Amino acid sequence: MRTGSPETITERLRKVENLLKKKEIPGPGIEQLGITGDPYRVLISTILSLRTRDRIMEEASKRLFCRAPDLDQLGRLSEEEIQTAIYPVGFYRTKAKTIKQIGKVLKEKWENRIPSCLEDLLELPGVGLKTANLVLSAGFGKSALCVDTHVHRIMNRWGVLQSKSPEETFRTLDRILPAEIKSSINPILVSFGQSFCLPLSPLCSLCPLARECPQKGVVHHR
């Protein structure tokens, strides 16, 4: 697989971050909720965010956390009560069941604590690489690379990777990137991907990388 250098990726991230600051583009939903440093809330909000707009996820998270500010209180809620709190997030019934299962596992195995290593997080119901690494980075403040569809798309669009899935993108970037920038990649590229580097008809004319980006796979609709 062809990969760009860590220096190239780091420099492009810096330019994109400067654009976001200049345009005063807010961070993704997790940052807007102000829950950084709280592994429990990062975990639950990330699960709610799947196939759901940030605004809906934010409101659902607030409602749920009002009723269950910690894992002990979460364990006292029924699956139906969780459903009511998180509606209308996408797949709210499935997510309520998953959240209830997570609460049960964390109580029985972890004494109502969130585990702080990747392998243990991946054993929780419904938790994959993206969610686990976001909990490590945003929840625990560890160096952890979170790759979602935005990160995967943009890295391939920049031509620094040629990968077929977010998982493949994660494995490659996790191997080549310095630890000090891993946690910053997701919030920067999620905001950039939602505001400028859109899946379809990206705003290339406004991008500071316009002259150096090969725009791999870009489709402009008129």
Q: Which secondary structure elements does this structure contain, and how are they paired or packed?
A:
Elements: H1 6-22, H2 29-33, H3 39-49, H4 54-67, H5 71-76, H6 79-86, H7 92-110, H8 118-121, H9 129-139, H10 149-157, H11 166-176, H12 179-195
Total domains = 2
Structural class designation: mainly alpha
Helical content stands at: 55-70%
Q: What's the average pLDDT?
A: 94
Low-confidence stretches: none
Quick take:
The protein is mainly α. It has helices spanning 6-22, 29-33, 39-49, 54-67, 71-76, 79-86, 92-110, 118-121, 129-139, 149-157, 166-176, 179-195.
Structural notes for this entry:
The chain is mostly helical. The chain has two domains: 6-25 and 144-206, Orthogonal Bundle (Endonuclease Iii, domain 2), CATH 1.10.1670.10; 37-139, Endonuclease III, domain 1 (Orthogonal Bundle), CATH 1.10.340.30. 59% of the residues lie in helices and 0% in strands. The chain is built from twelve helices and no strands. Helix 3 (39-49) packs across helix 4 and helix 3 (39-49) runs antiparallel to helix 9. The longest helix is centred in the middle third of the chain and has 19 residues, at 92-110. It is globular, with a radius of gyration of 18 Å. The model has no long low-confidence stretch (mean pLDDT 94).
What brief labels describe this structure?
Endonuclease Iii, domain 2, 59% helix, Endonuclease III, domain 1, mainly alpha
